[in-house]
Predict the 3D structure of the following.
Amino acid sequence: MLKILYFAGLREATGSGSEELVLPAGVHSVEGLLAHLRARGGAWTEALAVSKRVRAAVNQDMAAGETPVKDGDEVAFFPPVTGG
Amino acid sequence: MTVRIQKEDFDVSREIAALRSGNPQIGAVASFIGVVRDLNDGSTVATMTLEHYPGMTEKAIDKIIVEAKGRWQVYDALVIHRIGTLAPLDQIVLVVVTSAHRGDAFAACEFIMDYLKTQAPFWKKEQTPDGARWVEARASDDKAAERWGSKG
């Protein structure tokens, strides 16, 4: 099982703050998971589009597209950060 | 090192006094205070609301401070970042660094702030006359962090 979190504009656009998901077959990386979520269509396809520069964290560390994702991980998706 | 994420305001002089108390080796204290402006990207800002990623936020800032301590002589560092709804004139963020000398204190303080802007998971939403909008990340913030070179 994966725990997936969404923040800020991404949370609003997808209407989801968090979800639990069985690791989909063939998904081994952040990019793979993003592609899987994008394939849901509608708001998911739009909010997670490549042009949206979606950022990710795996187990609360900033991640890249190729960062591995495995069962039990906490994966977060969010827009570029704007704190400070 | 201390990292606090809080809704409440902070008292700069009290925080600085606490950070350097009892250490006579400190010769320099550098601080940065970020505050809410009433204008951003051409619109007046009535209020802004800060969202963050609990757990990761603290972890990310801890890592930035450890990185700063590896690059410069730093005795201690403090970061306080507020969340929730803030208005123009309110304080948002405080970074304080103590060191033996000013060069290290200035550099480490600026480094922590530059990395916080691009690595710490906070997001601002502004209330403007045209409605609410999420603040867009700035390319200049990426550039500011990049000039320090890659992370070790």
